[in-house]
Design a protein that fits this description.
Radius of gyration: 23 Å
Number of strands: 6
Order of helices and strands: EEEHEEEHH
Oligomer: single chain
Shape: elongated
Number of domains: 1
Helix content: 25-40%
CATH superfamily: SecB-like
Structural class: alpha+beta
Strand order of the largest sheet: 3-6-5-4
Strand content: 35-45%
CATH class: Alpha Beta
Amino acid sequence: MIDENNTDENERFTEDSNDKVTQEAPALSLVINGQYTKDLSFEAPNTPEVFNLLQSEMPNIQVDIDVQGNAKDQNVFEVVLKVRAEAKVKEELAYICELSYAGIFTISVPAENIGPVLLIDCPLILFPFLRRIVADVTSDGGFAPLMLTPVDFASLYQKRILQNQDKDTPPT
């Protein structure tokens, strides 16, 4: 018989039919508790005049994306995926679209993995929903739907890690 009271809470042991004791991996999980639009803004200050410019020229669209993760409770986190898109035609502002789309996640992983899960895995889950909302809002505003290209959240995470290391390193 195995004394389960002497085991770490992340370690589990089982006995098979041949009385061999084996260690099971800790239970890892990522559960989506909910998703929601936290903030949404769309402005088209130069309509309807800008529509005439769009007949002859494609807009220049600048898109910025950011991810934030915050602890809400034990193993419960809010992840907010933010996008800001600004479209201009011949220096004339066509529209600005800003969206913060969030999710509440229950995450059970080792502490050293929480950053990548919050800033890579969770945004990958949220991104398709954010993308659809941005496309719908820009289309509803009278413009061609803005179809955001897929985002490499792993690369963004690596850049954030490098930036934080540079801030911690004294200048030479």
